[in-house]
Amino acid sequence: MKKVCTKIVNIVGNVLTVQAEGVAYEELAEVSTSMGRSLAQVIRLDKDRVYLQAFQGSRGISTGDEVKFLGHPMQVGFSSNLLGRIFNGSGEPIDGGPAITENLIEIGGPSPNPATRVIPSQMIRTNIPMIDVFNTLVESQKLPIFSSSGEPYNELLARIALQAEVDMIILGGIGLKYDQYIYFKETLEEGGALSRTIFFMHTASDPIVEGLMVPDMCLAVAENFALQGKRVLVLLSDMTNFADALKEIAITMEQVPSNRGYPGDLYSQLAARYEKAVDFDGAGSITILAVTTMPGDDVTHPVPDNTGYITEGQFYLKGGRIEPFGSLSRLKQQVNKDTREDHRAIMDGMLQLYAQYNETEEKRAMGFRMSQWDQKLLKYGQLFEKTMMDLKVNISLEKALDEGWQILAQCFEPEQTSFRSELINKFWPKAK
Q1: What is the rounded CA–CA span in Å between residue 408 and residue 397?
Q2: In this predicted model, what pLDDT tens digit does every residue of 176-187 receive, in sequence order?
Q3: Nearest to 232 by CA among 285, 296, 182
Q4: From CA 416, how far away is CA 388, in angstroms rounded?
């Protein structure tokens, strides 16, 4: 039976307070005003006091308006008809198409039972060398993209959406600027990937609570497709906006703040989303890549700091490129052994030489005299950055490995590298 309150006790900002019993946390309510009906969500329970976050804000709501509790949390329609569609943070279509009203599923459920998971063992190819070769993305992995403001993280997500070898993409935008939303939409349309993509979009001008629901909507839909056997890649941008929304609501609720004003349960809130990454036994999988912008390029900021304890590494975006020494995929060893026999050697050997190049570049900048070996390293570093690190490069893993050998052969003699003789004999380019 739906509970109805005919009086709102208090209105502070966009938070409504009513007296009610038998109401659940995150339950939806419908507020009837003279301007129509709007949704609100339970965000706090204190004995018989129920606090609701109004989706469309509190403008037009008075203390005498009626509040009807709907008896369920936020739901989203689940259907194959979701593919190619664009929805807002409330699950309503914004692409001019019909609403999906059949087979409603609740969002924000628990993480999958560990007994239903299998050990990650499948590579997800992206045709981006800095991912495929050096920090391989593994199916069912959860990885953040740590980025400072101004870096092309949305461009990187769009590239991955176009090129990742998965069955479908679910793209969640949290606090996006409108031009960023248009960029995603046009890029996916032009690249022919929109038909395998579901887009949940929340802009900075939309209600805060909708931004909080975007990751849950993406992951609820992803879980149901994964249970049908689909390999689903969930892309989120950006989780710092999600955390800032949590902070804003916590401040409104006058909760005791933790580090830099974020709520004390920030870790739990982030983990509840990231832990939805899973490879189901006998079914499909959910892989999560989520942008985490770092204010002031500070990796110790509470959002990236907490995220690092939850996830299985990170891609560190700096200077418009994936930084090889700040990035890490902790599961890459699960798949690198099965790709090509020279994969691990190329990955380790080229990074060792690139580290030496960075040291040589520092010496050159300080005016030190360059030796013949230093000259080789300088040439190598420039080729490595152009061929491997440039995010515009779009080549397969095998082609990238071959390019690696070509770079090495242009700069060094075989005996100057640390590669095993059997690999050099098999893969070192033959002189023409």
Answers
A1: 17
A2: 999 999 999 999
A3: 285
A4: 21
The more confident residue out of 102 and 177 is: 177
Q: Is the pTM of this model over 0.70?
A: yes
The answer to whether the Cα torsion of 22, 26, 27, 29 is positive or negative is positive
Lookup: tokens for 349: 């050997």
Q: Which of 274, 309, 315, 311 is nearest to 293 (CA)?
A: 315
Distance CA 288, CA 235 (A): 6
CATH of the domain at 205: 3.40.50.12240
Residues 255/59, Cβ–Cβ less than 8 Å? no
The boundaries of the domain holding residue 154 are 76-332
Q: Which residues are CB-contacts of 415 (< 8 A; sequence separation ≥ 6)? A: none
Structure tokens at 419: 């590669």
| 174 beta partners | none
Q: What is the amino acid identity at position 369?
A: R
Question: What is the widest separation between alpha-carbon atoms in the chain?
Answer: 86
**Which residue reads 């204190």 in tokens?**
46
Cis peptide before 65 (omega within 30 of 0): no
**Together in a domain, 213 and 290:** yes
What confidence tens digit (pLDDT) does each residue in 230-273 have?
999 999 998 999 999 999 888 877 778 888 889 999 999 999 99
Residue 303 lies in a domain: yes
For residue 216, give the 3-state DSSP assignment. helix
Which stretches does DSSP call E strand in 93-153?
A: 104-106, 142-147
Q: What gap in Å lies between CA 377 and CA 152, rounded to an integer?
A: 28
Sheet of 27-33: strand order equals: 4-5, 66-73, 27-33, 36-46, 49-54, 15-19, 10-12
